[in-house]
Give the backbone structure.
Amino acid sequence: MNKLVFLEEKATQIRRDLLKMIVNAGTGHTAGSLSNTDIMTVLFYEVMDMKVDDPDWEDRDRFILSKGHSVESYYTILADKGYFDKEELNTFCQYKSRLIGHPNNKVPGVEMNTGALGHGLAIATGIAKAAKMSKKDYKVYTLMGDGEQAEGSVWEAAMAASHFKLDNLVGIVDRNNLQITDNTERVMTLEPLAEKWKSFGWEVIEVDGHNYQELIDAFSESKKNNGKPTLVLANTIKGKGVSFMENKVEWHHGLPSAEELAQALEELSSQKEVKQNV
Amino acid sequence: MSKTANKKVVCQKLIEFAEKDSDIVALTSDSRGSASMTEFGNQLPDQLVEVGIAEQNIVGMAAGLAAGGKKPFITSYAAFVTMRAIEQVKVDVAYSNVNVKIIGISGGVSYGPLGMSHHTLHDIAVMRAIPNIKMVMPADRYDTEKLMEELVDYQGPVYVRVGRNPVEDVHKSADYEFKIGKADQLRDGSDLTIIATGELVSTALKAANLLKKDDLSCRVINMHTLKPLDEKAIIKAAEDTGKIVTVEEHSIYGGLGSAVSQVVAENHPVPVKVFGIPDEPAVTGYPEDIFNEYGLTPANIAEKAKRMFN
Ligand SMILES: Cc1ncc(C[n+]2csc(CCOP(=O)(O)OP(=O)(O)O)c2C)c(N)n1
Ligand SMILES: [Mg+2]
């Protein structure tokens, strides 16, 4: 099967599964997960090197979900890849489930616990530094939100990563222009965001965060060892794939009703068919 | 029994005060909806400062606003504003002793299913160890309303923790005295005193009701102010009733139980039994599940309290 068609189908399935999981749990961060599903799908099914039967394999590429509230996309992908049984997704956010509402590293495949924003990049910078110190070739990826960019700790780590010339580190910003309250620029101006990262010494690659080829190209580009960390600025749509959720701030942690879920699932399957017929 | 979320009362009162006093400024950190502050933003947009997801900055800026003559009220997630920003709280607010009010919202295990990053079970311990700052945890909407009325005229740093969910009233009406630093005795008794704080005061009252059926007479104290602690009320409870039980939505380390034990041990040693969250990442689930897990229920508290008489 064509790689891009495969990724498209996978992402659609992940979106469907995560929506079902959220409705089943009765809670969740809906739109942010849909926003980054394509990025995560490309990373987990195309870019990163990992062994499902050996989650602690020492040469694995590392992934840190800095925007921990988008854990729905993460758990759904890990289950689909076989890190744990898909049935377990039904326990999401339930009493004593290890599938907590933010990444839990008791779950196979999850490296570190996150949930408080602005932590992932510093952790990823530390892992990337460790790789350099032990002469390991693995890469470290961390996915951040755009609202999250307001946390000062992001920029402390950004400074350190370029200071330590961590070209084995890739930061990704899910640039969906929304946070909980409103549009990011109305809450706290981020622009010019690409220039900020460049001025911190990062290689910046701007892509359409829903275009699989552009994402794949950006991640290959990041592999050239030029002594600089890479920032993939991924322009996305919050709520991507579900018409009534797209670009709607209230879907940040909105919970779909049964009818809304049915409509969302239908939209997601018909989009796939349309694309395949093209 | 009526149920209201304390954070809603905070917002109503802030609108009321801010309409009359343009120096009152509310600060949010992408926490407007979560703090029920959307209405404040709609009605008084010029008195709301939104800093984005930046808890250190919200506290630092509030200190600066206060230094510049404003009366800042921070309304931000309790979990982050009392940890991420704790140095700003300690140095910028408490040490410089400026007039900043910090309202920590969705505290305790309000965000139960979201895990330890979002639980706030450390704030009593942290805040009590910082000089100059007071800490209050209102039990119901009446407490919250009276607290806000006192805060608006009070000069100096205060941290307030409220939960996310609607809570039962522990008072029948607003007809009682509320004062920061003064224990609120809800019921008198002679065999045992239950001292509780925050949104578990209602649980303590129910435990006292159960004990009454066993002919045990319980004094119930709503210790809304964690600092300054009403030591006199604690010592008197030890003297009068000889046994003390504490109840809190906080780690058993450094919380109300620790504070009460210290006062009791130094002044009038009597048995103390502490109910809180043990030293582990709290189990996840809805708040009720978590309270059940750790025995923060009327039945368990009453049962264990009875054993103190064997
Ligand atoms: C330190 C910290 N502060 C606040 C929050 C609460 N919070 C969770 S998600 C969120 C908004 C995130 O927006 P963004 O980074 O743009 O992510 P998106 O969902 O849009 O991808 C906030 C404020 C948090 N998790 N951590
Ligand atoms: Mg965003």
Remarks:
- The interface with chain B takes residues 25, 27, 68, 93-97, 100-102, 104, 113-118, 147-148, 150-152, 179-181, 184, 187-188 of chain A (CB under 8 Å).
- Chain A has a mean pLDDT of 96.
